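Page 47, continued from p. 46.
Same chain as before, 52 aa.
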Amino acid sequence: MTSDPRYEIPRYTGHIGWITLDVSKGRDERELRSLALESYRHFALKKMIAKL
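Result:
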């Protein structure tokens, strides 16, 4: 992700794995939905994913 200039490792939370996405110049709703879902699946409990 960091090879894409829209993504950046933030100063204070980057060391724990956070990445920011600059959407100020436009956004792709599909991409945002996909990123949010991927993140949810990574952190959610198994029973929460099963309900998804």
